[in-house]
Structure prediction request, 800 residues.
Amino acid sequence: MKYVMHKMVGLVVTLFLISALTFFSVNILPGDPALLILGTEGDPARLESLRAELGLNQPVVVRFVNWLGGLLQGNLGKSIRYSVDIAGLIGDALPVSLSLAVLAVGLALLISIPLGISCAVKQGSVLETLSLILTQLGMALPAFWLGLLLIDLFAVKLNWLPPAGYTSTASLVLPAFALAIPRAAVLTRVVRSSMIDALSQDYIRTAHGKGLARRAVLYKHALKNAAINIFAAAGVHLTQLLGGTLVIEQVFGLPGLGQLLINAALQRDLPLVQGLVLVSAALILIVNFGLDLLLLALDPRLRFD
Amino acid sequence: MRLEKTLLTVLLFLVIFGGSVPALADNDILNIAVPTDPDSFDPTRSVAAATAEIAFNIYEGLVKSTPDGQITGALASHWEIDSTQTVYTFYLREAYFHNGKRVTADDVVNALNRARDPQISQRASSYQAIAQVYAEGDDRVVIELSEPYAPLIYELTELAAAIYPRDAAGLDQRPIGTGPYQLQEWRPNQYIKLTRFEQHWSGKTPYFREVYFRIIPDYNSAVASLRTGSIDLIPRLEAAFLHLVEPVPHLKVHADPMNVVQLLAVNNSHPALRDLRVRQAIAMAVNRDEIVIGAAWGQAEKIYTGLSPAMPEFYNFELAEVLPYNPEKAKELLKEAGYSDLHLTMTLPSAYPLHVQTGEIIADQLRRVGIDVTIEIVEWGTWLEQVYTQRRYDLSIVGLTGKLDPHTILNRYVSTNSRNFTNFNSPEFDQLIIAGVSSTAEERKAIYDQAQAILTEQVAGVFIMDPLQLNVMNAAIKGWQSYPVYVVDVAALYK
Prediction:
């Protein structure tokens, strides 16, 4: 319980620091939201009144305090770019990014665990050599390029899946694969080395000695031990994906957090940038926290530290 | 064994999901791919071309543009201009708003008064010539000008002068207009859904019942969607992606001038660039043929002044030979001016690959005549602040959106204009622009011919090309109309 409290306080402090840092750093950037709204066609005479309307003529510190005040009342404010409530925008985008990240990591695990185990069990086999080459290739492929290849094959040539846009869950399949393949490559190697490591331990020999079936030894004893490493690595990938699937969202035209963030930053939509950074930071911290708890459950040794 | 099972599961998963792809291409639904969301559907606030393109179908003004850039009645069936050229009387049609209410003269007066109020409207300066607007009875609106202003009728076609109900609120999200389509739903980063309006004054019902403008930022993906049929139309595809479309038999391309002026902006206040000979040397160092091929893939029309040939009534076709490509002459001019080793920075907006590529080619061409050019690529927000507003730059490249009236386009080179970011200063030019607004149609042609000649001779900038608008669509879509302004006329389309 004390551990949880401790973590919660840390979470709030971190979020505050992140917010302050984004707020002030975005303000240092050149570019003015009012200028961006007017563009090359708007009337420059309108600039001052527009800046006043957007609250930009107040000092940065005052704006930050106002924003913080709103936040404490659960109000993220209004977006400059879209002139709607930020909470609604994020509420629409969050499920897309979240399911994409979870689906991608899920797929990566689904591919890497069986592949990694097979490699560990059949060391030196053709399968291992082949998968080592494939994982090397998988790690080297940039996700966006893979995305374009997948679109060309599965959407344009085979017409199985939609190429871009977000119309149903099917729209997430190709981007999830594009994100999963490079990650599966990394994870396969993690699974393989963790399994090799686990299989060389004394208790495995004991288990074999007890006369346990090969499968039971492999899955009940070795995999359970290797799981700690695997989940820790998968957790890192998950947090990475939550922090930004910007490029893949752009390529597939997915209305996720990354897409919003790009537009918000380009338009100097500071309230929206703030809201997005806050939400993704919170998400990452929460996932990390959850991961800590999971590892704690998996590994009794950690509980006594 | 386990491995095979997993692979099988994955495959199964793919097939199941693959089977559930919804058929987007319904017969009376049209899907259009656009790269960004509109800015706001409030006519007093919107300045983005991305909005005008969609809003053309939702809102109407008193008058509107035809595909060949002429003016025709919209909410006004006809109008009269008195002999002093200062009193315009518009006769309203029987027309209805999307909320079912009839359009009254009162609604028109309210909308136009807001459009010219500098505290409310982002485009107020376009309507500064208006002294007052008032209703005469229920179906007549009178606009009185403080002095003759010929561009007025063209300005009234702009989204900024659209008519909406007097009591309308929240137009930025929920536009209420009189156009052939009404907004059903706007989901940021996903789509804008329009449905046809059954009570349009024309009595005509558009072919497509529902129209989706789907936000697809990446052109590769947009073209892939067009090929699979989940998108029917991509307006204004970038030329670099045309090769993905051309080999596909079920797609077609309508290519027409865009009415955009791509400009190599030359800061006329820069110590060296203040010298006309240096500016002329730069103009003569630019080889437009290389740029049209290298940056626009051949999909552009060369221009030599501040208007586009998309406005044939006003474009001055005589200026191609004023400062023709001649690197030897350019070197001589530089030598004469005493700038044998000139260093300039070219600031380019990263958001526009066409301008960046053009800039790279021009930098190379300038190096060939002995001007050392450093390229600096900045993001759009920075460009607007540094180049456009503060005018802290030497050279830059940008595209200026065309309008229907030459005054609106050329006005920005008047020395006192706040949008005169090239710092061009020619008293003679200023005089002509003032004269142009109060002249008759025939006089105006001569005046703007002369004004364009000055822009070219005095090198306000080097005018490069008007890129073609490449409207790419499924061959089954018929009725496409290209306009000299930034619109997609959905009501004209059918299958």
About this structure: The first strand of chain B starts at residue 29 and ends at 34.
